Amino acid sequence: MTPAAEQDQTASAVMDREHAIQTGLVEALCTAVEKGDEPAKVDEILTQLVAYSSAHFMSEELLMRLVSYDDYDDHVADHIHMMDELDQMLALHQTRQPMLVLDKARSALAFLARHIDTRDQRFAHWTPPQRA
User: Fold this and answer.
1) 56 Cβ partners below 8 Å, 6+ apart?
2) What is the CB neighbour count within 10 angstroms for residue 23?
3) CB-based contacts of 79: which residues, under 8 Å, 6+ apart?
4) What is the arithmetic mean of pLDDT over 71-77?
5) Separation CA 19–CA 13 (nearest Å)
6) 7, 20 in Cβ contact below 8 A?
């Protein structure tokens, strides 16, 4: 395996772990709301999810910029959509509307799965154009 291929494989493994953590936080949020956990517990999970998602998206966007990724704008639009959904979940949680938080969280989980299977997979397999 070439050094570039090894580096791509390592980067892909890191992204896979980050995606597993992010989806795991959304799943934990769904479980906490379904069980009727205390609002403080739900708040803790939501806070972690927002912070983690923000950091993950920022690092992914930086990587895309570094390689002049050709689908950057559409990919980032998904990130913005997800962060907007998380902001709405926070607002719903603050107004004590757990069932609406749960609906949004389930929707976010499906959205993340589609995003990972499509946009993130495309980025993982994308090869930058060769420079002359």
Assistant:
1) 18, 22
2) 15
3) 57, 60, 61
4) 98
5) 10
6) no
Over residues 35-63, the mean pLDDT reads 97
> CB within 8 A of 87, min separation 6: which ones?
50
Closest-CA residue to 97 (of 33, 47, 49, 50):
33
Quote the CA–CA distance of 112 and 93 in Å, as a whole number.
20
| Length, in residues, of the chain | 132
Structure tokens at 49: 């999810």
What would the mean pLDDT of 41-58 be, rounded to a whole number? 98
Contact between 41 and 32 under an 8 Å Cβ cutoff? The reply is yes
CATH no., domain 3-125: 1.20.120.50
CA–CA distance from 31 to each of 27, 28, 92, 104 (Å)? Answer: 6, 5, 17, 13
Domain parsing of the chain, residue ranges? 3-125
Mean pLDDT, the chain, whole residue set:
91
Read off the tokens for 107.
């929707």
